[in-house]
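no rush on this but wanted to send it before i forget. theres a chain ive been looking at and ive put its sequence and its fold in token form underneath. i want to understand how the tokens follow from the sequence so walk me through it. thanks a lot i owe you, the record is right below:
>
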Amino acid sequence: MIVYAARRLVAAVLLLLVITAATFAIFFLVPRIAGATPEDLASRYVGKAAGAEQIEAAAERLGFHDPIYVQYGRFVRGIVVGAEYDTGASVEQCPAPCFGYSFITQNPVLPELLDRLPVTMSLAAGAAVIWVVAGVSTGVLSAIKRGSVFDRAAMGVALAGVSLPIFFTGLLALAVFSYGLGITAPGGSYTPIEENPLLWAYDLLLPWITLAFLYAAGYARLTRAGMLDTMGEDFIRTARAKGLPERTVVVRHGLRSALTPVLTIFGLDLGVLLGGAILTESTFSLPGIGKYSVDAVVNNDLPKVLGVVLIGSIFIIIANLVVDLLYAVLDPRVRYT
């Protein structure tokens, strides 16, 4: 297990390097190939209000006239050891790991992302608990009662949950439960958990349920399909032939094997959400990483967009690493060498 974990950790670091190269290519190399000038790239750093002279000076200070491999080396070096940014009036330090420096807010990107991370983590963690419990439970019951009224109704609701976009269900939920009935907190409400845990949960209850409804639907369908395949296996018939209780057969043997693909999808979904639940945070006006990325695009602030891409990639890599290590816990047939 230790050797396997070490190999996966090394692979994760190499994958992160590949992601930095791909990210740099998307935002810097591809535009240059498409005909963008250094001034065009610099305009994404200084915002929409900057004049031609400011943009030209920024392109010179940022080194966009240098060869592309020199720019990439500077980009990676900033992540590893930090960077200095010449704003014209002063030279600003961006300590390692430097995910970029916003010339609009005149702040390094990473501290701003870390300030917004608790909001995104709170949203993702609460919603994940709800959608896993609700989705897996519904999928198991639907598989056991295949063809029943409950099975058809649950899969119908699951189909609706997968089909309806979050900005529709979110706005509808706000209109009914927050502004209509006054049961839940209105949009834009967030209280840090260390200040008031109950108010923290109250403010996030509706975003949790709305986001979980979207994911629980897919998890219910995936769990149902996995359970139907697993319950027909030989080891399930052997367990029943030994006289084990049906509950033990379903939960300990059937569900444990059926959860392997669910765990894979869960790791990816959670990693993506930790990188910013863009639609949910925008719908409910939550000051998380997703809302931060939307504001960055609107304000033409490329360093912030780059920072969001990098931190989202890190979360996805970590989630995949944890999922790989948890496979042996769920499926005893998996062995690491």
Remarks:
- Strands lie at 83-86, 91-94, 101-102, 107-108.
- The chain has a mean pLDDT of 84.
- The longest strand covers residues 83-86.
- The CA atoms of residues 143 and 225 lie 7 Å apart.
